[in-house]
Amino acid sequence: MKLARPTIGSVTLGLIVSAWIIIALNIVFWEKTAEAFGEHRTALMAFAIGIAALLTALTLSVSIKYATKPIYIAAIFSAAAAAWFMGKFGVIIDTDMIRNAAQTTPAEAGHLMTPAFFRHMIFYAVLPSLLIVIVRIRHRTFGAKVKWNLAVIMPLLLLAVVMALWQYPAIASTMRNNRIVIKTLNPISPIISAVKYVIRQGKDKNIVALPLDPDAKPGPLASHAGKPVVTIIVAGETARAQNFSLGGYERKTNPELEKRDVAYFRNTASCGTATEVSLPCMFSLLGHADYTHEAALAQENVLDVLSHAGVDVTWWENNTGDKAVAKRINMRNFSRENDPRYCVETECLDQDMVDALGPWLDTIKGNTTLVLHQLGSHGPAYYGRYSEEQRLFKPDCRTADFASCTKDEIVNAYDNTIVATDHMLAQVIDMLAARSDRLASSLIYMSDHGESLGESGLYLHGMPYMFAPDEQTHVPFIMWVSQSYSKIFGVTTECLSSQADEAFSQDNMFHTVLGMMGIDAADYNPALDVTAKCRQPTS
Questions:
Q1: Torsion, CA 239, CA 240, CA 243, CA 246, rounded to 10
Q2: Alpha-carbon Rg of the chain, whole angstroms?
Q3: CB of 464 within 8 A of CB of 92?
Q4: What's the mean pLDDT in 221-249?
Q5: Cβ density class 401-413: b for 16+ within 10 Å, e for less
Q6: What is the mean pLDDT of residues 208-227?
């Protein structure tokens, strides 16, 4: 005997779906709302009633025959996924975060798809969606449906307006000072961000990068160096300055670099809080104030300027991609090579690049710049970024599911990733120093952004910059020069270290790289070149 499917009215279903989204899938939103309004309970009540009325009205407005179920199910899945990541990691699902997600690798995405995530999605998305699929929706005729829906929607809209007008001054000032609140509203904010991303992706395809400094050339010091001038740029990943012992962290996370003659700049700010923004911004002329994704695509970067000047420029990739920075230069992708000695499902220890570096350095004939894009401290699977020998801090979190670890275990695992980066940089420096007789070499290390490790309930990174904590924007910045480089250019570690407490940012990278390589270019600004004060030949 075939069981009859339960029948439900379209308005009734809309009210139930709306209630589920408002109550179960907007916990973060309501927490931030309550925090923002503080003691203003009356304004909080008015705002909550108004938002609930607007969400309910919107839910009912998309109750269209044949489209109701797909729209409701899509909204529930979107809201459930966003609720998980906002609740567990404190991230905001804005356009940049959507772009990061779209460009992630299967291996990286796999670390976020934990059993706890799937349990959450089953309860908050799959089961409610199955109920929607099972029921038969009772739709009225078109005319009657419009009248009936409007009979519910219009009072809801009126209620929202009344609530807003009643407490307008308090609501307006609170929202103006706490803009992050509305960015957590499910599923409105994630859907709007996704739509913006799709629109921008369509526009991106038509953007052509305009040439930058096509007449750039080696300056007098580089032209008469007598040996190849070489700069290794290590683009770090997710390393925060707070956990570098070079900057005062109580744990010895930089045991090897502390024995090398390096300059460490303590007050360096990132351009963004996610690789998708910070990496291209780091190599761009635009700087943090003028940077946009579209503007960066429309203009060449410092690596292109080096190429115009005759420098051999190469990018080695061991992360989730170069974010269009290296599209016009030589590229080697280590994660795609997936060497089983270093890699697990295309995620490779940075040692893979280090072991390839020595033989590569021995082939250099002319002025050269190499970028090593690390996997570094990329979370949440910190435990996969370091070897057993670099596992100095225990017990460390051995899973990507932070709920299974204590905060101390998460920090231990993260600190071990910094130890791994320390070892990598020390090895690169030693390789360059060993070739000082034939190469005038230098090294620049700068992380793309930082990381939250539970401060204020936040984990990982990607917060909108204006709301981001210092842990996500304060990054380590290190420089080293060989003896032969110092002899030619006059730049010494002692001179660089004299600026250790000055405020720098990723805005300095473009000009510092040109300065390190001794390039004359129209867009070079010595005021933003960390080496400019130090550069004078000693022979």
A1: 80
A2: 27
A3: yes
A4: 97
A5: bbeebeeebbbbb
A6: 95
Average pLDDT, the chain: 93
Token pair 């809080």 is found at: 273
Quote the CA–CA distance of 291 and 248 in Å, as a whole number. Answer: 31
Tell me the pLDDT band of 362, cut-offs 50, 70 and 90. Answer: very high
CA dihedral 520, 521, 522, 524 (to 10 degrees): -90
Q: Could you read off the pLDDT of 137-195 as tens digits, one per residue? A: 888 887 887 888 899 999 999 999 999 999 988 998 888 888 889 999 999 998 888 88
Distance CA 474, CA 321 (A): 23
Query: 495 in helix, strand or coil?
Result: helix
Dihedral sign for Cα atoms in the order 36, 39, 40, 45: positive
Q: Quick check: helix, strand or coil at residue 69?
A: helix
Which phi-psi region, left, alpha or beta, contains residue 151 (left: φ > 0; alpha: ψ -120 to 50)?
Answer: alpha
Side-chain-side CA neighbours of 93 within 13 Å: the count stands at 27
Asked if residues 60 and 149 have their Cβ atoms less than 8 Å apart, the reply is: yes
Element of type H or E holding 504: strand 503-505
pLDDT for res 373: 98
Q: Determine the average pLDDT of the residues in 353-374.
A: 97
- 385 closest CA partner among 164, 197, 237: 237
Question: Encoding tokens for residue 109?
Answer: 């995405």
For Cα atoms 57, 143, 6, give the angle at the middle one, nearest 5 degrees: 70
Structure tokens given for 185: 């509203």
CB of 27 within 8 A of CB of 88? no
- What percent of the chain lies above the pLDDT cut of 90? 78
Cα–Cα dist 200/378, whole Å: 26
At residue 65, φ and ψ (nearest 5 deg) are: -55, 140
Q: With a cut of 80, say whether residue 467 has pLDDT above it.
A: yes
Q: Which two tokens stand for residue 450?
A: 């930082």
CA–CA distance, 408 with 220 (Å, rounded to integer): 53
Question: Lowest-pLDDT range, 39-43, 479-483, 503-507?
Answer: 39-43
Higher pLDDT, 384 or 537: 384
Report the C-alpha gap between 316 and 371 in whole angstroms: 6
- Chain centre to alpha carbon of residue 259: 31
Q: State pLDDT tens for residues 62-89.
A: 888 888 999 999 999 999 999 999 988 8
Q: Which two tokens stand for residue 213?
A: 């400094």
Helix (H, G, I), strand (E, B) or coil at 100: helix
